[in-house]
Amino acid sequence: MLRTVGSYLLDAFHFTSTRCVLFLSPSFLISGLRVSIPFASQTERDRLLADITASIDLIGAYDPKRLQRMRSDVHRILLVHWPLEMSLGYFTTSPAVCHINASVFDSEKTGRVVVGACVLVHEATHARLYAAGIRPAAEEDMRIRMERTCLRAQLAFASTLPSSERLQDVFATSLLRSSDDYSDREVRRQRRRSIRVVWRELGRILRGESEQ
To answer: Between the N and C ends of the chain, which has fewer C-beta atoms within 10 Å?
Structure first.
């Protein structure tokens, strides 16, 4: 019972924080997709916009049908920095938002545009499932099945890219260990950490601070 109440409260906090960030953040239209980059200086925002634009263009070049679906399925793409060990991205509903870890686009990372495109494909697949009436599952078995569907979408997209064998190996390995990554215990841990990060960054934007 306590676990159920705690899960409900986590969902409520996550919903509220996401709505606040979307309301307070400027947005940009890129190839028909609305993108927001809060908590960033102008220089950092310009750099991230260039990278996420390149990632979206990559999807359009190698999988135009997927990009077309994303335009109807995804309400917003939100780039926010949080610790890389948490996750590269996640999806929330009401509205359908693909949260992408801005650390993916670290200026020193080679291949960041390709990785960013693959992360976006993964989260957009969650949006596709949601648009099709398949709601995020509380049951561990169903959640793992959904995550494997998204991983297979990543793998399928990566297979269309040139010189992507290493990336395909990474996604294939993720498919094998997805049961551990999306267990009930791991999901609760990730959600608690993500809420702390979002509220911390929300406080920064309310104080008028940004990344320097």
So the answer is: N
Residue 3 lies in a domain: no
User: Residue 211: inside a domain, yes or no?
Assistant: no
> Is residue 5 one of the residues assigned to a domain?
no
Q: How far apart are the first and last CA of the chain?
A: 44
Q: Per DSSP, what are the bridge partners of residue 100? A: 79, 89
Kindly report the pTM of this predicted structure: 0.78
Q: What is the pLDDT of residues 142-197, one digit of tens each?
A: 878 888 899 999 999 999 999 888 888 988 887 776 555 555 566 566 655 555 55
Residue type, 102: A
- Estimate the share of the chain in helix, then strand, then coil, as percent rounded to the nearest 5: 65, 10, 25
Give 143 or 100, the one with higher predicted confidence.
Answer: 100
CA-to-CA distance for 102 and 81, rounded, in angstroms?
Answer: 5
Helical segments of 63-183, H only? 64-73, 112-131, 140-158, 165-181
pLDDT at 188: 61
The two tokens of residue 20 are 């606040």
72 within a domain of the structure (yes/no): yes
Cβ 56 vs Cβ 79: under 8 Å: no
* Distance, CA of 212 to CA of 13 (rounded, Å): 28
How many domains does the chain divide into?
Answer: 1
Q: Rounded CA gap, 44 and 57, in Å?
A: 20
Give the C-alpha separation, 77 to 128, whole Å.
Answer: 14
